[in-house]
Amino acid sequence: MRLQEKFRIVIRSANYSLATERSYWAWIKKFIQFHNMKHLDALTGEDVANFLTYLVMKRHVAVSTQQQALSALVFLYKQVLGRENVTISDWLNARRPKKLPVVLSIDETHSIMVHLTGTSLLVARCSVNVWGWLTD
Fold this sequence. Notes:
Blueprint: H1 3-13, H2 18-34, H3 45-57, H4 63-80, H5 106-113, H6 118-131
């Protein structure tokens, strides 16, 4: 039985969504292509780690994308191929971007407010007073 047929039977019997099936199969194809169409029996956990590292270093994928690729390959090896002994370790994890809060200091707020007039000044003063940021 061909790999795609076996994969389809296993993933559908596990009641995965069609979107997940398509996504996982796409990752499996990319993994096989990355390793120049080698047979899966010849590929190890180290090959999976190399592929995951490649996704981060060359393709600059997000954390969730790398995680999805990992999930697809774990599903392939454990559920489809029945290889429980595959150990995947030492790959480069994608990093979540740091989200810096955008907050103005009191001096920065004052320097902006001195240039406001009319309705803009009124709205800014109301916002500042409601949140208790500035006191006159």
